[in-house]
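ok trying this again, last paste got cut off
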Amino acid sequence: MRRALAVLLYSLAFLLPVLIAGGLGSWASMRATMSPAPRELVSRAEPAARPPYDPRKPTVAVVLGEGVSEVTDVLGPYALFAQTGAYNVYAVASSRALRTLSGNLDLLPHFAFAELEALLGRAPDVVVVPAMLEVGSPANRPVLEWLREQARATLLFSWCTGAEVLAAAGVLDGKDATTHWADLGRLAARYPRVRWRAGVRYVDAGTVLTSAGLLSGIDATLYLLAKRHGPAMAQAVARRIHYPTPEFLRDPRMQPFTFRPPDGIYLLNTAFKWRKREAGVWLYAGVGELELAAVFDVHAGSFTHTLHTFGTGAVRSRHGLYLVPRYTPAGLPPVDRVLVPGAAGDLDPEARGHLAARQPRAGITYLHAAPAFAFDPALQDLARQENLPTALFAAKRLEYRQRLELSGPGWPPGLLALPLLLGAAGAGCAFVLRRRLGRHVGKHPLPGATSP
């Protein structure tokens, strides 16, 4: 019995510091990559100029949450629908105040819900719903109410765990749906009225279309374009973004993803990679939406980098999103590297001069200098700069299905050693404390105790 209690004591002493340190590290990681825009930036950001409206075209509304919305879930569908030239595509929210995407990318909605309704005089033809942080919070109640209203007359289309937003709004009850593979169990327990399906890239339930994790949304979008406009349009869009052959247009089935031991690198990066790489991300006029999504979801989404946007002022992306940088080139905080979602010619000479003068040690990486699917060079860079296991899980988290050549270092021994050292220190302290208490009790027996 005494031996069993000792084993229990040492086990708890080993686990407690690991859990406390890991919990604090995870909290710090989430805070660093999911932080809303600073108040001063929000207060001085002017509403975006309204883009043109063509009443002959159907309208796609990409919804932004009140807090942080998932970056690829917003930029991905926006870019794909805009690529067609067949749609009015707008970012919409409950108000036109500045919104933040995961990884700390800030943008301005084109329209508030009421403004879009006044413009169209009806519901949008397609409403795209991204994953949103704290979807059940009171702040997001206007979003859920608006989605319930749109459900009567439009196609609701969720990317990744945007399905949770639709489920919270009650519009998935009694319908088939899918979501990110890592969230299926959680959402099935929380929303049992939804018929959740695994092993598919997307589910078409008639008035609702749901996609699985992140890049599965590309397949779902191409499927929708082929359904509404014919396969030629879907194939043309796939070619423009250098997306591999859209093999899931006819059959969305895929081999389900599951957690495996090597995937623990993601948890270690989240909880115990306390020194993130600080990186500046250059925002410039005409920057590609998919290129930006790749930078933010691969680098910040892997919890290996903390990203800081910088530019000379608010800029319009390739297809008209209004992006607001948090820093100027002169005011960028110290960074380890600079990531340009483009080629060398996309970095302003004046900004390059500021970087050379103020941050000469910060190397500049031009991630998209050559034509390629936007996520390929980002994943390759992550493998080289961090390690291969981190990049492999990043591809898995993204539900990247194509063959991609990655090379980089193996498992980082220091990252695994840290929790082991913390646990050993805790067990060692318990051992020393137990020995001292034992000696103290031996020298000073309790009152009334008798010697054997």
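PB: full thing came through this time. The mean pLDDT is 91.
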